[in-house]
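Example 3.2
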Amino acid sequence: MAVSDLLAGLIIPAQWLFCSSFMLSSAGGVYPCAVCKATQKATYFLSTSTMVAIALHRYLAVFHPGAIHFNVKMSICITWILGLVVAITNTASAKVFEYFSPDHIITCRVILEFSKPFDSKIIRRYRVHLSWIAQFLIPLTITSALYAQIAFNVWRRSIVGEKSECRSRRLGKSKRKIILMLIVVLIVFILCWLPIHIQKLIDFIRQFYNKKKSDCHTNTTYAFIYWLSISSCCYNPIIYYIFNPKFRDGFRYLLNLRPQTSFRSIYRNTSSNTENVNEINTIAMHPATLPAL
């Protein structure tokens, strides 16, 4: 996810150059722009699919600890292979923003349309109609369902043999922080991606009933919605910094804000936090009875 977020952040300014009117009008200029657009779409898919993989990993750690082995390397490979497929399908017949044309600062056009060996218009039609399902609806549904079960299990169950009041308070604080982090992740995902997909759905409905091509959005409202969606790659580090002490200490160490602390000691100092997480993960390992609703 970190690599995909970094690529997403770098590809935006690259489009200002490679998708400019000057570059698109030059010989072979459409190909770098198409690659940038395809890479951008692939990074968004990688972020959402990685979010689903993380949710599945946490679900298995809580409900089936040790019973089911989650192959992290395999999940990363599958995610990047699917991202490559998304990039390839977006290379053909990509609708891109054209920057700094003689008449407008921002306009749009479709580049790299093919009729052989495949019809790129048909591919684009299906891709546009199904992108919001594969990139937004399915990941949101799966992640929400898994996180809801995790939050319910962590919040309602208690650890068998809990005797220490101090330990109970520490565990309660850790539970609240974990649940809050899961809620924040979902809310940020919805706020970033829901507006742009609603706009695409409205365009599809208008195009379906009016039998017209969708307009090129160059107004301020769409620019803000588009910015909101592409800014999603910036929020994950902020969320981790707020809720994860280990990530926060490591970030401060890299910025040399705590030069007296060694990087190895950061992990030793966060052992108590890891202990709390392990305690929470043991909730599902004991047959504790859920309280009556």
